[in-house]
Write a structure and sequence with these properties.
The chain has 5 helices and no strands. The protein is mainly α.
């Protein structure tokens, strides 16, 4: 199974983004993003959530816990009029 750090690098490269562009998405420096990819700095959960949303995938996919790229369906809210009882 692929580990987290190569997967975020591969996603970035597959989408033709630079580290700087992803750093701007996460509101961090390019150097910090580079450390995430290299594994010298752990990625905080807030950044994992942001990356999963950005790439329209799940955190499990980013972490290598699944090879299924599509994100999970959003949970239905209790106050949502369209949600089934």
């Amino acid at each position: 199974m692929i580990s987290l750090y190569p997967r975020i690098k591969n996603l970035r490269e597959d989408c033709d983004f630079t580290q700087q562009q992803l750093a701007e998405v996460l509101n961090i420096s390019q150097a910090t993003y580079s450390r995430y990819e290299s594994g010298t700095l752990d990625i905080p959960s807030s950044a994992l959530i942001a990356l999963a949303k950005f790439y329209k995938t799940s955190i499990d996919y980013l972490l290598g816990q699944t090879d299924e790229k599509p994100p999970y369906p959003a949970p239905k809210r209790k106050h949502d009029k369209n949600a089934s009882p």
